[in-house]
Each structure stands twice: as C-alpha cells, then as structure tokens.
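Sequence in, structure out. Go.
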Amino acid sequence: MPAEPLNPLILNDTGRYGLNTQASPAALPPQWLAKADNIILDEQGRISSRKGIQQVSENIGSTSANADIVKSIGEYFAENGIKTLYCGIDDSIYKLDTTTTPYIFTQQTFSTVKEGTATSVTPQTITDGNWQWVNFNHEFYGFQSGHMPINYNGSGWFDMNHTSTWTIPAGITTFDPSCGMGKFGRMWVGGISEDPGTLYYSDTLIAEDYNGGASGKIDLSTVWGSDSIVHIAEFSDKMVIFGTENIVIYSNPWDPDNMVLFDLITGVGLKARDSVAQIGNDIVFLSASGLRSLERIVATDGKMPLMMLSKNIRDELEQHILSSDMEQCKAQFCLCGGFYLLAFPDRDLMYYFDFTIRNPDQTPRVTKFVFDTSECPRSLLSTIDGTMYMGMGSPTKYGSVAIYRNYWDQYKTDETSTYGTEETCEAAGHTWESTNSKCWSTTDVPYQAEFSTVWLDFGNPSITKILKRFFGVIVGGQNMDVDFIWYRDYNVDTQGSASFSLNPGGTQYIYGNTASIFGVATFTSGFRPAEYKLPLSKAAKVVQIEMKGRIKGYKASLQSMMLLAKQGKIR
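Output:
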C-alpha cells in the first residue's frame, strides 16, 4: 500500500482581523487571534512586533527614580509657528525642551502679579497634573477638576482669574471646569462643581470673560435631565457635548443664541474625558460598554445607532472599564500609523486599534500592549509631526517622557555621581547633557511579543491530522528566540513545543556602512525573508498555534505559515 501523502495546511491569512476574545476560539475562522500581546498587524495583515517605548527625557528631580508622574502632555502652538511641549506633573507645570539629549524639563512659575497690572496675587495651589490642554487664539489653557483653569499667554503663566479680561459667570462662586474647548470663536467649558450640567461659553475671542459681551450659558438639564458634562468636542462643524449618561449634538455653534439641537443620544455617555479622539471624519470615545463611533449619527441625521468599534473584545474591555480608574485612562490617535491607543495604566495594558484597514464588520483591527507591573504609560500625546509621546509608567522612571519608536524598550539612568565630567561620561559610552551637566546611560530592554491562533480545523474538523512539520516565513527579528507551541483538540494541557532562533541574514541596514560613501546608516533594518522549519508530532483534529519571542532591537514580521500533515482516521 502506498504511503499516505503529506498535505499542506496553509495559514497565510492567520490573524489578519486581529484579536477576538468575544467569541469562542473554537467557533472563529483562522483570520482571528485568540491572543495578541505586544504585536500589531501591518498593511498586509501580517503579524508584526510593536515598536519600543523609549525614554527620551531626563527624570524630574536629582535622582533617576522619581515619584512625580507625567499625567498630561500638551503641545502649544504659538503665533509665530513655534510648537512647545508642556507637561502636567504633580503640583507643577514643566516645559519639555526637545532640542537636548536627553530632553530636559524646566519648571514653570506662575505670575504673582495680575496680568497687565501691578496688583499682587497668590497663585492657586495645584494638587494634580491631570490637565486637559487647549489651544485657543494663540494662547494655551489647562483644565482639570477641582482647579481654576490655567493660561499661558505666550510670555507667562497665570491662573485664569489673574488675567486682565477675567469675569466669572453669574451665580458661580468657584470656577473649576473639568473640561474645555476652544472652537467657533470662543472658549466653551463644562463640569463646574457647582453646576456640572451647564455649558458656559466666553465672549468672542476672549477665553477669560464669562459675564460680559457675547458670553453666556446653556442649561442642559432641560435637554438631558440630570447629567454632568465630561468633554466638549467639535465634529463636522457641530458641537458635541458628552455627559456621563448622554450625548448632545448642536448645529450652528458659531451663533450660540441660535444653536439648534441636532441630536440627543440617551443612555450612552463618556467614561473617560481623555478617550475622545478625532479620526478623519469621525469621533471615537470610550463609553461604559466599549469604544464607540459618532460617524453614523451625524452622517445619517441621527437615524442610525452608534457603531461599537470594540465589539470583538466587548466583555474583556467592559471588565477593564468597570475596574479601572477612569481619570487615569488616556487615549490618542496617531497620524504616524493610523492607530488609536487606549491605555489603562492601573491595569498594565494598552489597546491598539488599527484604523488603516477595517475588518469586514467595519471594526478596526485590535491588538494589545501588555506591560510589567505599573509600567504602562500614564499619558499620551500625538503631535502634529506624527510623534507619539508617552509619560512613562515605570515606578523608577516616573517624571520622564518616552517616544514610541524603534524596537527596544529603553530606560535612561543618571550616572553623574560616577561620571561627573563630559570626558569620563563619553569615554564610558554614555551621553553628556551639558545644560544641567549630567551623564546619562541608556539601557535597552527586550519585551515579549506573542500571539495565539484560534482553533484550526483546516476545513476538516472530523479528520485527524498527523502533524509532521511546520514551515514559517519571517522577516527580521535578528537574534530573537521563538517558542513555538501547538495545542491539540481543545485541550491546552495537551501540547507540543519546539523553538528556533531568527537569523535572517542579509544586510543590517537598507544602505550604508563604515566603508560606504553614504557613511554609517541610521535607517531601519532591512533583512530578507527567511524560512524556518520545525518537526511536529502527535495527531489532532483541531490545532491551536502559539508563538512567542522577545524583541531585541529588530522588527519581526510573520509572512506566512504552513503545516505539513498526513491524513489520519475519521473520528
């Protein structure tokens, strides 16, 4: 009798739709993943490693470990076109100088003289750094619960009530809005402790005047009943007001006296102020049940339901929303890669929603970034140039800022006590920062990326496959050790395992080396695809594959997979 031929079981589309924890992995097609930690999906839907979170700033204070958390980062756009980063850290505001290596912080001082006068004033006592930053009319404003708004006018910092045009809204004793928006020719604020359900707006182009000129208010209790304003946004030339349980949309916000109620969405509110993001012609936000989209509401005159963007991880995400501190929850959409990051620092994870290519159900592809204890970033900012900044989460690195780039996680350590001069610092291979005369070392830290397929039956769930060999084509991942595990017949205790090392060969850089006319290259690594083979064993009707490896400076991208198997019995 002739030997049973080997049959190729091709898995080229594995995981291209991203993570799905909502449905049973036994009931999903192979395009979904059951686990997707520290990976992303590229434009072709191939599984790739995430980039690194690399510290680029010094640490606040004199030591490398610091307890001051960078809870907010904002980008100020000055009238002359200069852009400056400011950070809310504990009880202070810091300017971040990005022209030095590493970046350095300069603590900002609030004026003790009322703007435009000689009158002495006492600045408020700031107790937290969780600011919402707003640019308006070439000035910079910060809002957070329990605080008077703050203002940078291009030359100095003031509490809003210390500016020359300040007037308080009628009937309000303590002006402490938790959110604000500078659009449609004025400043709009909400979440005031004494009156959380009323929207206040300033005089035209005067962000500090709330009781004169064209200023006014809108009492939303007549629209949505009892609710509190959490966030205010602009969308398709309309105003969106997010409450905790409702959303109100107004048209014609350029003329507050003649604004028209466009839509009232009841029963759906905003859970985290800093989760709202504009993505093209859409606004996404975190509700109690997950990440939602406003696009359908406005595009259809409010006649279609809000789209649930996180429906494939709904239950998992809801658990994090229920158990997390929503004031810590941060999100940003990055033009650098068309993705939306949603961070839960107290849960040590961040969700990556990829909007570059939608799945057939119109949801973004989702993966996760998983961190060691307390290392999840505490703040996020995507700047106009496409850089994603992060306030670092590691307890030894509080008070520092990182950038999402390259393929190491990186930390900096103050080595000045050992290498106190520029000569000794650079001789040791470290970086000398001349402004503060400090020596900084950089440590590269690998991070583990891993994924699991759903249960794969290869179209024949009743036929046993006698597993013989695995073939995988992977690009990059130099010096990366990969663990390959296969589970059989819905039993995670029944497994086989093997390992291999990535050594793709090819050139380390796209072009350039010490002998090249171009000099030493600084471009990303350009390795050719390489095929890897592993022997497999045992028989199974259905198989689940898990791959994991530590990223060590090089991107790894899975191009294709194939299993060779013999057909066994029908059972």
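Check: Residues 508-513 have pLDDT under 50 and may be disordered. Residues 211 and 344 are 39 Å apart (CA to CA).
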